[in-house]
Design a protein that fits this description.
Blueprint (H helix, E strand, L loop, with lengths): L1 H30 L1 H9 L4 H15 L2 H13 L5 H14 L1 H13 L2 H18 L5 H31 L9 H19 L2 H13 L5 H14 L1 H7 L5 H23 L1 H12 L7 H20 L3 H11 L21 H26 L6 H26 L5 H33 L6 H21 L10 H24 L5 H29 L4 H4 L5 H10 L1
Helix pairs in contact: 1-8, 1-10, 3-5, 4-5, 4-13, 4-17, 5-13, 5-15, 6-10, 6-15, 7-8, 8-10, 9-10, 9-11, 10-11, 10-15, 11-13, 11-15, 12-13, 13-15, 14-15, 17-18, 17-19, 17-22, 18-19, 19-22, 20-21, 20-22, 21-22
């Protein structure tokens, strides 16, 4: 008897978790770019983010997947913190859909009559559609079927357990009982890393009559608190944006849980009334309503204070960032979604380009200090190593065609910026050693050349500016200036106005400056082409940019 009960619990839970996994992955892959579109475009305000978070979580049945996607969008600059907080709020309401499915199936549906056809149809779609989106729909249908079978086995096992053991004696009333079952719900979620699985156990146990309504409601609150463990684990070593999103999730769930615990008698009276309005009261529906109501209560508390919550997170997370060499946008959590990983890489490469521009500008100024330059270069070297390591991780993924094509361009961007940094390092060393005293006419040509270099470096990292499309012409002008300067240096060297060794060093110095410019421009050009040009800048001339790519 004992063995059969344990086997029923373990097997039912295993089927439930396997079904949830298949269902979640299938729905997420079948939705494809639709999820990206919804989260990227339908979250302009916290309220719209709330609706989007609910809708997408209800669709894919995984708040964890939505949280990871939100982190990726925030890191990629496609979503503000305020928008992401709204999505997090909505995803918590979206998780309650699982409770409604369990309640509906457990109460009014002949499970095998529904589950077995779904498994059969899902398997057929998977076997006959290996290279189309229908295979993901097949996985989702199979997952639903296995999910339903798991529910049936769990419910049957709990009924047998209630018959074999007098579990009424284990129900503790009052505050100690509430806190005990809150803890049990949190522990279940922590162990299984799935609030949906924990809620399934709680609902089936309640429907089998082995726990009271108050105890199962307290355990439901515990699942909300326990799900914060997933957020905590996911941000270990993650970016500060990821930590802010996770912190918003944790604060919401803890505060909502505390409010629900303090008001549990009132909430239970309200939901019992709502559940019995149709004249057919049942415990499963009451718990599903309770789960939904206290999450909606949390949203009602937090939504008006979204901006204050975002300000709080910005003030207290990330203040200590002093290591510019640490990636700001790269996050391992988004590697499961290659498109989001490429978005993060795009943003980090843009940051690398801006830092490269700054270090080049510093090296060209009269106030240049070599000690500061060494510190800045060390920062850039560290960042480049981190970006390359992230590219290796992306390379190991099963990349869709469009993303696989973009990865070599990303590697080119790194190489061009790296070459620019190496060249400017040599230029900076030459600058401190060279005697820059020249005859007035030659000196004026040199000043014009250096000014043009600074102008190009400034424009090179602003691909949305009108001047960007003229960079080819500016580089040609720089090349002409270089040859004029070269002729002047050769002339004054031949005439004895400067030392011949100095002349050779100056020629090398200005040649390096020209090459540095070319490398920086090439890096920025390929960076701008990593993403659809409309996403990079609305006013850029796409045709000119692609024509420019052919020249570089």
């Amino acid at each position: 008897m004992f063995f059969s009960l344990v086997a029923g619990l373990v097997g039912g839970l295993g089927l439930f978790l396997l079904g949830m996994r298949l269902m979640t992955n299938g729905l997420r892959n079948a939705a494809g770019e639709a999820l990206r579109s919804i989260l990227g475009k339908w979250t302009k305000t916290p309220l719209r983010g709330l609706a989007s978070g609910f809708m997408v979580t209800a669709l894919v049945q995984s708040s964890s997947a939505i949280t990871v996607a939100v982190i990726g969008f925030v890191n990629a600059g496609l979503m503000t913190m305020a928008q992401s907080v709204g999505v997090i709020f909505g995803s918590n309401i979206g998780t309650t859909v699982t409770s409604w499915i369990v309640a509906a199936v457990g109460v009014s549906v002949q499970v095998k009559a529904l589950a077995l056809p779904l498994i059969g149809l899902g398997a057929l779609l998977r076997l006959t559609s290996a290279h189309s989106r229908r295979k993901h729909i097949g996985d989702a249908l199979t997952g639903f079927g296995i999910f339903f079978l798991g529910i049936e086995i769990l419910q049957s096992t709990f009924q047998d357990l209630g018959t074999a053991v007098d579990l009424a004696s284990f129900n503790i009333g009052g505050i100690p009982g509430i806190l005990l079952f809150v803890s049990l719900g949190a522990i279940l979620t922590l162990l299984m890393q799935s609030s949906s699985a924990a809620m399934a156990i709680i609902l089936t146990a309640a429907m089998s009559g082995i726990v009271t309504l108050e105890s199962s409601a307290a355990a439901a609150i515990g699942t909300n608190i326990g799900t914060t463990s997933t957020a905590l684990f996911s941000v270990i070593g993650a970016t500060y944006n990821a930590k802010k999103v996770a912190a918003a999730h944790i604060i919401f769930n803890f505060v909502t849980g505390l409010v629900a615990i303090l008001t549990i008698p009132i909430l239970l009276r309200v939901v019992s009334t709502l559940s019995s309005l149709n004249g057919d009261y049942n415990l499963a529906t009451t718990l599903a309503i309770f789960h939904t109501v206290f999450n909606m209560l949390g949203v009602a508390i937090f939504l008006p204070f979204t901006s204050q919550l975002v300000d709080f997170l910005n003030r207290h997370i990330g203040r200590e960032i002093t290591e510019l060499g640490k990636p700001k946008y790269l996050d391992n959590n988004v590697l499961s979604t290659p498109a989001l990983a490429m978005d993060a890489l795009f943003m980090e490469l843009g940051r690398l380009g801006e830092m490269t521009r700054e270090i080049c500008q510093k090296a060209l100024t009269s106030k240049f200090r070599h000690t500061d330059f060494i510190k800045d270069k060390t920062t850039l070297d560290t960042l480049i190593v981190a970006i390359r390591a992230y590219c290796v991780k992306i390379q190991r993924l099963d990349l869709p065609g469009p993303i696989a094509i973009r990865l070599p361009a990303a590697l080119r961007v790194i190489q061009y910026y790296r070459k620019a940094i190496n060249i400017i390092t040599e230029v900076s060393q030459q600058y401190t050693l060279l005697d820059h005293t020249l005859p007035e006419a030659t000196n004026e040509t040199a000043r014009t050349f250096r000014r043009e270099v600074r102008n190009i470096i400034n424009v090179a990292h602003t691909p949305c500016s009108p001047e960007f499309v003229d960079l080819k012409q500016q580089l040609n002008q720089l090349d002409n200036l270089y040859h004029d300067l070269k002729d002047d240096l050769l002339r004054v060297g031949a005439q004895g106005h400067i030392d011949l060794n100095t002349m050779v060093s100056l020629l090398e110095y200005y040649s390096n400056m020209r090459q540095m410019c070319e490398q920086a421009v090439k890096g920025t050009t390929y960076w701008a082409l990593l993403r659809d040009i409309e996403l990079t800048c609305a006013n850029a001339d796409k045709e000119n940019e692609y024509a420019w790519k052919q020249d570089v």
